[in-house]
Give the backbone structure.
Amino acid sequence: KKFQYYRKPTMSDKVKLQASDDPNNVIEVDAAVARMSQTIHNMLEDIGTTDLPIPLHNVTSKILTKVIEYCQYHTENPTPKSDDKKDEKRTDDISPWDKNFCSVDQATLFELILAANFLDIKPLLDLTCKTVANMIKGKTPEEIRKTFNIKNDFTPEEEEKVRKENEWCEER
């Protein structure tokens, strides 16, 4: 199939998205919602409006549905922009809706991070990374390993060396 070139899409157009795991599952969304993804935004700028679905090779149906839910909500309820660069490093500024959105199992959360990165949806990437940061905050290395099921492959000597090298960053 060839791409059909028509015109530049408007925000009221619909866009068809196709997940990686089911070519028959095509989800139609408003262009404004799809354009929260810089990747899709750039594709639409390049190809114009088409009736063909945009294949998203790195995003499953389950995750695409969650990403669309996020984009739909934030298109309808935009978050006010903050000019303060310090806000980017904050992890305690998550809205109740976003906090609930990220209340998913770890596998889903990490797939959302990968999808947000692939689709270049910075607010979703920031949100999911803040959620992971909050899961880590205040925990010991052992607790973090347990939370994320990470095997400790350091010998006790190597671990002690790393602790000594990094004791400057320990809270006192």
About this structure: The longest helix spans residues 61-76. Helices lie at 31-34, 38-47, 61-76, 96-101, 106-119, 122-136, 141-148, 156-165.
